[in-house]
Specification:
Length: 620
């Protein structure tokens, strides 16, 4: 199931944010832009003297605790290494030079950096850092720490970090105690490079030198960061508590007013989804994002809800769909034939699942940019054709002259006979014939075996009917339940046929597309679970990265969306355009939420009087 922390991805402060020019605080001359922020196309929403973000309550009280749940277990508090399973929110300690907002698709503003300077061609960027910035132990955060962090991620970071950094950044240089310059490599699009550099997490050089810690090792001792929260306590595999740092250096910055309001964030771990729900009913934790439509429709009839102590809520969700899907591992020879992938995809009956299992609350994902204006629809328009025609010889069949590929539709019977016949013809054509035992075999006598890995008990009811449909097709399909530690290990080693995963795109994508869909990432990126790569996609990604206007960007994204959908390396699942959350009625949020984040742990706050009333009534 989708994680209860999916909406917090924006807080990870990685290099996925991109941008270009605008909203300058001052311009030194025609060749150098000096600004408090940077936006891809157009003016920044916030001027240099903005008092606070529009969507926060600047007078939100500080205090209280919010508690949420975590899935499975953890054995590390280091989120930037491939070793171990990092605890939820373990990147919360670290800040970056630039910070995104939840009401703009393509803007970032200074956080640790007070301003940035860059030439019109963005061949380099200089960040002027805030001299008051401090790590949580009170030690100064300097340009030397920024350079150290860049070099560490370049040499020892996650493979996806290393790939982007090594390809795009030539060097980082401390020009002074609070001034750092990044120089970018020549011959590549530079539109998003200041944001790539400004989005890197910052670690303490002095802490690593003093402790002798190896950045590549898994550890339960988090590195020293500068963020608003520090580690309060942990019980390995059971609980993590983060505590708001009252001495946080950036608490009075305009970009932080009305944010980071909870004194404590507590995470309670549960072995599976159902036990986590029982924990919420018992009050073990107090805030829950509900990902199970069945539980949402039928399970919220327990005493805390009936007495009004806890509430169900459905705030609007304007974010991109997560791209949740069954993902084929294209590293497997049996999935190289697109007809095999298409046939297997036809056997997942969303319409039946939505009616029977999901109580009709979902819509089907069709696009990698679902729930946005960037999804391709109908025939390609003139702008898309201008992008696609130069690479016509590389495109999958039908991209130029057919509408965007849509997920197959089915009847409301579990096994759709029409799709069964179509899928059978595809497998026949691909050389997988039905044997005497009803199983499909190739010329070597091998069955078409497809193992679907799953580490969530709540997903059994989705996968088991899918497996039944596949077996009716003659596919030797099996559903294998494993624990979350095994899932992590097998995904990292690409040891699977199919898994449920996500393709997380953005409204202003850039270099991060290479991590999900680039040929060079196919063999190593944990984000490219499919192992997908094609020359057509690579060229379109370069076009996206090089786009100089919003229209050009949008057209190139829709063109890429068409190609990716035509390749059929996923079986798209479902999404909602609302959040389904439940919480004990002592949390508050602004009347108008921003379009791109629910912001529960970011700008919600604790109502002490409501808490006291609940406590007096026996809710806790």
């Amino acid at each position: 199931m989708t994680s209860p922390f999916d909406e917090l991805g924006r807080l990870a402060r990685t290099a996925a944010m991109v941008g270009l020019v605008a909203g300058s605080m001052a311009t030194a001359n025609a060749e150098t832009i000096i600004s408090h922020g940077i936006s891809t196309f157009g003016e920044l929403r916030y001027t240099a003297d903005f008092p606070h973000l529009d969507y926060v309550n600047p007078d939100a009280p500080k205090g209280g605790e919010i508690s949420v749940w975590g899935f499975g277990s953890f054995d590390s508090m280091h989120p930037y290494t491939t070793k171990g399973r990092a605890g939820q929110l373990s990147s919360i300690f670290f800040e970056s030079l630039l910070e995104g907002t939840a009401d703009e698709a393509d803007a970032v503003y200074g956080l640790v950096a007070e301003s940035l300077e860059y030439p019109a061609d963005r061949s380099h960027v200089i960040f002027n850092m805030r001299p008051e910035a401090r790590f949580s132990d009170g030690s100064p955060l300097t340009a030397a720490d920024v350079v150290f962090s860049y070099e560490t991620l370049r040499d020892k970071g996650l493979p996806s970090f290393r790939a982007v950094i090594q390809k795009q950044i030539e060097s980082a240089e401390a020009l002074g105690p609070h001034r750092v310059k990044f120089t970018f490599k020549s011959g590549i699009p530079t539109r998003d490079l200041p944001q790539t550099a400004g989005g890197l997490p910052i670690f303490s050089k002095a802490w690593y030198e003093a402790t002798g810690a190896d950045f590549e090792d898994s550890t339960l001792t988090p590195g020293l960061g500068s963020g608003p929260y520090v580690l309060d306590s942990l019980d390995v595999g059971q609980q993590i508590v983060y505590r708001r740092n009252p001495d946080y250096w950036g608490k009075d910055l305009p970009i932080n007013r009305g944010r980071h309001n909870f004194d404590r964030i507590r995470i309670e771990y549960f072995a599976d989804y159902n036990s986590a729900f029982e924990g919420f009913k018992a009050g073990t934790y107090t805030y829950r994002t509900e990902a199970s439509s069945k539980i949402w429709a039928t399970g919220y009839d327990f005493p805390a809800i009936e007495k009004g102590w806890a509430v169900k809520d459905t705030p609007p969700d304007g974010t991109l769909a997560s791209g949740q899907s069954f993902i084929f591992n294209l590293r497997r020879e049996k999935f190289q034939d697109i007809r095999v992938r298409e046939a297997i995809g036809m056997m997942f009956n969303f319409e039946w699942s939505n009616k029977t299992l999901f109580y009709g609350i979902y819509a089907r994902i069709n696009s990698f940019w679902e729930n946005s204006y960037l999804k391709a629809s109908g025939q390609p328009d003139d702008g898309e054709l201008a992008v696609l025609r130069p690479i016509a010889g590389l495109l999958p069949d039908g991209v130029l002259d057919s509408g965007a590929v849509m997920a197959p539709t089915s009847s409301e019977r579990q096994l759709d006979r029409r799709n069964l016949r179509r899928a059978s013809a595809l497998l026949d054509g691909a050389g997988w014939q039905v044997g005497d035992d009803g199983m499909r075999r190739n010329d070597a006598g091998e069955t078409l075996k497809v193992e679907i890995l799953n580490d969530s008990q709540a997903f059994d009811r989705v996968i088991n009917p899918y497996v039944e449909n596949l077996r009716a097709l003659g596919v030797d399909a099996v559903h294998t339940r494993i624990d979350n530690a095994q899932m992590t290990e097998r995904e990292r080693n690409f040891d699977f046929d199919m898994v449920t995963g996500n393709f997380r795109t953005s409204l202003t994508p850039g270099a991060e597309l290479e991590q999900y869909f680039g040929s060079q990432s196919a063999e190593f990126s944990i984000f490219n679970l499919a192992g997908y790569g094609s020359e057509a996609a690579d060229k379109l990604i370069e076009t996206v990265k090089a786009a100089e206007t919003r229209d050009a960007l949008d057209e190139s994204i829709r063109a890429l969306d068409r190609v990716l959908r035509a390749e059929k390396f996923w079986v798209p699942q479902w999404f909602r355009n609302i959040h389904t959350v439940a919480y004990y009625d002592m949390y508050r949020y602004p009347d108008t939420l921003p379009p791109y984040a629910l912001g529960t742990l970011d700008f919600w706050w604790f109502d002490q009087q409501a808490h006291d009333r609940l406590k007096a009534a026996g809710a806790f």
